[in-house]
Amino acid sequence: MTTLTFPALGRDGPSTFLWRKLSNTQTFESPLTRGVQTLALPGARWACTATWASLQSEDRAKLLAFLASLRGTAGRFYLGNLGLRAPRGTALGTPLVAGASQTGPTLATDGWTPGATLLAGDFIGINGGAELRLVTTDATANGSGAMSLSLDEPIRTSPADNSAIVTTSPTCIMRLASDEIAADYQAGRISSFTLEAVETFA
User: Fold this and answer.
1) How far apart are the C-alpha atoms of 190 and 149, rounded to whole Å?
2) How far apart are CA 64 and CA 120, in angstroms?
């Protein structure tokens, strides 16, 4: 099934938006000493809950049609943190991945305007909108436009050399958290929707 683009609605974003990170860990506790070891495992995912409290009829129809087209949890769509669409840093330039076969929680990049910044808490998108990462420390591009980014999780799929880095409205691939969709119809042709989604990957 084709990965869909989330529809643009007339109002500017949901009324409330909860963005969550679901880490993947495993904990071992010694039955003798009660000492605890916790391992961080691959597979951390993003999840969100978005509520639109007062959609007019046009946006209601558009959102309902989109959600229905997903066919429950079978569908896939691009979505990012709707509460933080633009970076707090300047993020100037045309940022690109600098070098192939990169793995781990650090990404070498170039193409920035010298002095451009990304700040801790900014999001970036790599791999054509399929992977969303959070920058964990402030970074500044050097005089050649190179910048090393510290990320919240290791890169899942090594991005191609010179592939684009998205800094405004970056996304990952998500699916609905359940097969049910519901619209609350109110007087005056106003509706409310709640969307629950979770990141998904092969």
Assistant:
1) 44
2) 36
CATH C-level class of 86-168: mainly beta
pLDDT, tens only, 109-154? 999 999 999 999 999 999 999 999 999 999 999 999 999 999 999 9
The DSSP bridge partners found for residue 196 are 49
Dist CA 149 CA 98 (whole Å): 11
79-108, pLDDT tens digit by residue?
Answer: 999 999 999 999 999 999 999 999 999 999
Give the C-alpha distances (Å, rounded to integers) separating 45 from 130, 139, 175, 193. 12, 24, 12, 23
| 177 vs 11, higher pLDDT | 177
Q: What are the boundaries of each domain within the chain?
A: 4-82+173-199, 86-168
Mean pLDDT of the 32-43 span: 94
Neighbours of 6 (CB within 10 A): 17
| The predicted structure's pLDDT at residue 189 | 66
